[in-house]
Amino acid sequence: MSQRLLSAWTRSYHDLRPRIVPRLRCSPWQGRILYGRTFSSLNAHRSQVNAILPTELSPNEKRPHLEYLVQRFFGSIWNDFDLSAVPEIVSPDLVFRGSLRPIPGNINDFAGYHKEVEAAFPDFYQRIDAIYTDGDVLISKMSWSATHTGTFRGIEPSGRRFMYPGIFIAREKDGKIVELFSMGDSWNMYKVIQEGGSEVIEESVWAGRKTGGRENEWKKK
C-alpha cells in the first residue's frame, strides 16, 4: 500500500472510530477488521428487522382495503346517494371521469355530478359484478340501471328504464381513492330516454338488478 493511500485510509478510520468503537485503542489494521465485522452485523440485523416489519403493505394486504373503499363508494355514496361518506373514502386530490361525465373533474365537480344524477335518476343503481385488483389499482365490471324521472341535460322525464354495462377503474393512495375512471354504454341510455329506444327490459331482469353484486359486501365487514 502506498504511503498516500495509507495516510488517507488512516485519517478516514480515525474519523469513524469514535462512532464504532469508542474508547477502544487499536491499530488501523485491527480497526478495519472490527469496522467490517460491525457493519456486517448491522446489515444482517437490518435485514431481519425489515423481514419482520415491512415498510409498506403487500398487495395482498392492500386488496381488502381497496375493495372496501370501492364497495363503499358504490354501495353508500352512490346507491344510497350519501355524500357524507366522501371525506372518509375519497381523497381531496381526486381526479375522476364518470360514465355520464366524459370530461375529467376534481372533488368539487364530483359533488355537482352526483347531485345531477340523483335529481334525474333517483333510483340509479350501480352493481359490481366482478372485482380485479393489482397493487393499488382495482378494476370492476359494472352494471348501471335507473328510471328517467327527472330532467337530465335538457331531456325531459320520460319514465323509461335503462340498463347498461361498463368498466370502472380506481387507484388508491394513502388509504383513499385518488383516481376514478368509468366507461359505460351510456349511448344506449341516451337512446332510451331521448329517442324512446327499442330495448324492452323484462320485469324479472329489472327486479333482479340489485341482486348478485358485490357492492354491499362492505356492510358485512
TrEMBL record:
InterPro entries reported for this sequence: Cyclase_SnoaL-like (IPR009959), NTF2-like_dom_sf (IPR032710)
GO-annotated biological processes: polyketide metabolic process
Pfam family name, one: SnoaL
Protein's name in the database: NTF2-like protein
Native source organism of the sequence: Rhizodiscina lignyota
Lineage of origin: Eukaryota, Fungi, Dikarya, Ascomycota, Pezizomycotina
